[in-house]
Amino acid sequence: MSAVVAKVRKPLIEGYKTYHDITEDICSPTEKVPNIWWIVGMVASLSLLAFGGFCLLYTIWFGIGTWNLNRTIGWGWDITNFVWWIGIGHAGTLISAILLLFRQKWRTGVNRAAEAMTIFAVICAAMFPGIHTGRPWFDWFMFPYPNTRGPLWVNFNSPLLWDLFAISTYFTVSLLFWYTGLVPDLATLRDRSTGMRKKIYNFFSFGWTGAAKHWQRWESLSLILAGLATPLVLSVHTIVSFDFATSVIPGWHTTIFPPYFVAGAIFSGFAMVLTLMLITRKVLKLEEYITLEHIESMNKIILLTGTIVGVAYLTELFIAWYSGYVYEQFAFYNRALGPYWWSYFAMMSCNVLSPQFFWFKKIRRSIVWTFVLSIVVNIGMWFERFVIIATTLARDYLPSSWSYYSPTWVEVGVYILTFGLFMTLFLIFCRVAPVIAVAEVKSILKSSGDQYVGPNAKEHHHDDHHQDETIAAKVDDVAEDTTYSSSSGVSAETDTQTETEEVVVAPPSAKDDLKKVEGIGPKIEGLLNDAGIYTWRQLANTKVEFIKEVLDKAGPRYRIHDPGTWPKQAEMAADGLWDELKKWQDELDGGK
Amino acid sequence: MNNNFTFTGSQRTLTFALMAIGLLALLFGVFTSPEGTHQARVWSNILHNTAFFMGIAFISTFLIACKISAYSGWHTNFKRILEAFSMFLPIGLLLVLIIVAGLWTGSHHLYHWAADGITDPNSANYDSIIDGKSKLLNPIMYTVGTLGIIGLWTFFAFKFRSLSVSEDKDDHGVGKHEGSSYWRSSKVWAAIFLPVGGFLSPFVILWLIMSIDSHWYSTMFFWYTSASWLVTAVAFTILFIIYLKSLGHLQQVSDEHLHDLGKYLFGFSVFWTYLWFSQFMLIWYANVGEETIYFHTRTRQFPVLFYGNLIMNFALPFLILVANSTKRMYGIMTFMAVLLIFGHWIDFFQMIKPGVYEGLHHHSHDHGDGHGSIIDLDGKPVNVSKYQKDGEPVLVQNDHGHDHKDGKTHNHDHDHGDGKAHNHDHGDGHHHAGDGHDHEGKDAHGHDHGAHDAHGKDKGHDHGHGEHAAHGHDDGHHGGGHGDHGAGGFEMGYHLPGFIEIGMFLGFLGLFLYVVFTALSRASLIPVNDTYHDESTHHHV
Amino acid sequence: MAKDIIFGLYNDEEHLMAAVDKANEAGLDIWNVYTPFPVHGLDPKLGLSESRLHIAGFVFGMMGTLTAFLGMTWIFTRDWPIIFGGKPYWSVPAFIPITFELTVLFASIGMVVVFYTVCGLGPGVTNPVLDDRITDDKFCLAFDANGLSDSELDKYRDFLNGTRHIAEVHLKSI
After folding, report:
1. What is the ipTM score, two decimals?
2. How many independent structural domains does chain C possess?
């Protein structure tokens, strides 16, 4: 089932990956001791969390009087931050759901991490209205239940209550979607691990086996959840926009709010995904899975959504003039030239002008530019919400109550808390689950791997078949000398089997680390595994010619390796002659 | 492989027959037009169909640009259909030219802002709100704007088309990694067109449609209109695929393509509904009189259009297309496509006709105040008027606030249809009783005219009441005053499409089909040199 | 309860597909197929009927719709009517957002629960794993070998060994 792919498509997986390479590259970061950057990041995040946590407790202990909110400006940094985080959360669902429906293959590289960010961002967001109530221990009053006060119900006509439903639903559905996608990958981790770790992953992988019927249902579920999540993600920011359109100032609203809030949310969400993934791909060495192609695609989305937001801003301004409605006109005059003109200026330049740089291909494909602009965009989107909230509230219908607002250190601290929380959760996530959807990346390998598409692809798929065939034939040859055998068959006594005991051949968990052999890296190890070589003993018994053939077939970059000494090295490893091996390897210098 | 479409004699006959029907309907409309209406019915039909079909051509161009920019491959095998739709743009330009000509010659009075003396403070007709918009709403801007922008779009449509067709004739570059030169330059043009189309379409929509209700404004309206075009363009694409397949063409367009187009039809219908609801909800909720009046008119006087619009464009497509299997059934897909084309034609009908109707019957528009109007459970505003006929304000917001508190109001709300409910609001509440179907309402029109002509001159009369009055902007609003006009009444061609409307629609459809068939016959149907051709052929396989 | 399974492992989904075709031609009864990722085009070959999860989704979704809409209607027209913002008791437009959210919520939770239930999956569930590499890069074609005589077993073994590109053949009791 070789996919038909247009020539102009660029590969999305680089480095001639095999299925095993994908598993290895993506899963191994969770299995190794964390590197220094992770530890530095964790310490930094926990420090932010600690300071922010203090500010949070301070707020709860003394009440929100510690904030600078006043009678006129009742919403300030808290609600700004709330909307900002919710917006960031939108990218995950967009990438997984909408891009799934539109068959954009590049989503597979980033969807897992983006969905995780969605969940963490919603957690950060939900905190703000929670503490803004002033008495968070009564937050459960927000949910409708027949209570002892009447029974007096919550106000189902209020957009603020719709928001409660929207955020709860969004969080739940995102979590279900994310976790269901994660289950097969957790099973991969389970099958790679031993001992306690295996037990833990066994619990969380829900007993996934990879059976065809399960995959079928899993795909069906993903597709329907995507179908449900698409209007859901629209509804969430739509309802957030209703909060502002109906609540901030009576008699003022613009009807374009819903779609442009959604576009803005996607805009900021992609920016955040880029900021984090640019770091993640570097630290976890996933550049071959999150390629420049992915970055460019996301930058195009940023350009698109940034321009949509720009169209909306200008439409608002234009219609304010056109309406002839003085309140509408004043609202926008106040934004651009009122006391908070600087935030309007920041919003316009960061959101509308800065993404225009992405018209240039060079900038779209530049990591540094992307990183800087992704941060600029998020600053701009924060200001957008600030403009809508604080600027609008500062000038209501009663000039005597006009006011100005700037935050206290406590408010800033609570904002910092969310950064600490978000980063901490993300860093933990990087350690315990694959940051890239392993199974989904595998499923696009044949249509997006660089050995199949793009300028370095092998010309005809025919060759692949041919190559596979010869390798398979060789495997049979090799097998003669090893415990691996496809023809030694099942002649063993079937009646003596005991529970879950392998009869015929050694279980693959007996697999050795072939990388101990100098000259063999993870990729070549994968190639050898594909050829049926898993143990040092097997490698020792393999003819050099065969290994050469395997390397030759794998493409030009492997052809340069000389496997001449590998069987001998492997024999030493298999015999446990480590000291000799070490000594010899030093002499060999690179296995050549 | 039958890769060339021939525009056969029978198809020609069909399109000409449709055009003839349209012409007959037009002539019939012209000769049966009542005195003093300035042929409003025929003119509004021309505007309606022009906006509808020109918009389909525009949105098809936009879709082509989206497809190119997104590296979308799967619909390559039927991209000629979208290209053929886009070829209607120059015809759309000509049609708009007709409307422009009518505007300059004063042949139609579709646009209230073009009325005599409307921006002249000394005129009886003066309208300060419209005067404020006159930098945009004037014949010169209208002409330059609409023709200029549509002309620009036409240029892009031809650019995409010629690049696509030239690529077909030149297989140099097929199968290259960097794509053919046509592919590369179309990418550049598409990237330019997306912002051009996105930024400029609001103005065209504003001039052609929104300015009919010259006081009303909604930032969402442009998106909403575009979504309506989008659904229609997809529906027409489906129809053409099914038709061309039935003729033995487009063998490489499979059920899988149809299925995905069905998903588009479903998805865009839901998207349209989303925009519809967002716009309605915000206006309903915020209850700013200047905006509410738009839906007040439609729910009260045009309920069949208002609810029919939702049923045809949301309820039916949602329920029918939500199932997977229906998207592969040619019969159901044909039915849905036809339904949605008609449904969105009705959508444009309800965008245009009520405003024209209002203009026709209340040209000297009353100056009321819509603030404080309330919409009841069906979204129908009640309690709108602030005036008795003698022009005295009798009610400010507090009054109905009081009504609600006394606990009786709800009875009023629930049975306002019986004609009694509104008596507490204003003296001439009987007009509300009609609920849009009341033929007696006609009497009311005549009755009101005199009164409002008087009001019209009295532009300052409502200063001093309501919270906004101090700003002096209220004077021009025809806001809630509509309540006074005897909302009831039914007039064929405005409240529902009549034979003239359907006939003219068929005429425009014939013209559209003629253009599309001609464009289809001028290039091979399957673009075999397109870089995505193979991908599209193997869609899903 | 031990159950004997004989299975072959392949290195590529195309090899597996060819083997499945061959098994179908030979009239062998495939017990199950395991893959590291969803392989398209496999379902019809295995005779798997289309998933009916969407029906569950629809039913649960409708439950959500009705719960929300009827609930709010009852609360605001019967149980405790209150006027908010001058709007009528029964304000349909204002009920739509929550109705939509609950529809999605019910449909999603319902479908996920149904999915895990019918698949027999869930927290802590341990299903027998034929080979640890199936979740990595091996494609597994498995036959039920329970209570087979040696000659019958040989038939399966020979079949698997006879398929092109076969990598390994195993017999396992689970």
Report:
1. 0.93
2. 2
